[in-house]
Amino acid sequence: MAAVVASLAFSPDGHTLVSAGADGKLRLWDVTTGASRAVLTDLASAVTFSGDGRTRAAGHDDGTVRLWDVATRTVRATLSGRRQPVSAVAFSPDRHGFAAGGVDGTVQRWELSLPRPGQANDGICRALHRDLTEHERSRYLPGRTRDQVRTCTGA
């Protein structure tokens, strides 16, 4: 038996549809073929994509919102602070704000402060104690060559 669909959202490019099911699954669908691209375990009640399509947000009955990296299918961050179930989620057009609405009739807003590329690279260098490999660079910084990305100092 198919699970009740709690929420749906199209990716900005229109190629992917995400569904949040009552069975605790987030499903990514290929819009053209109708085929399932991926199934993630996440009991979400509301879903949306960021404007650039790189992040997918999922709101939950425990009041949290998880921000998923679309490319790696991993959780980038968990937003908390709500006491009631999340029934709606939205990114601001400038990608620096995020809002979640709940069954209690309230809306909470978060400021999303993402590091600048140089700051992110410095953090990676500190954590790994080395520069990115070519494979890592192509996966996490697609379309960017070694010359376009600052390398680790001392790495």
TrEMBL record:
InterPro entries: WD40/YVTN_repeat-like_dom_sf, WD40_PAC1, WD40_repeat_CS, WD40_repeat_dom_sf, WD40_rpt. It comes from the Bacteria. WD repeats lie at residues 1-39, 46-78, 79-113. Gene3D superfamilies: YVTN repeat-like/Quinoprotein amine dehydrogenase. Keywords: Repeat, WD repeat. This is Uncharacterized protein. It comes from Streptomyces capoamus.
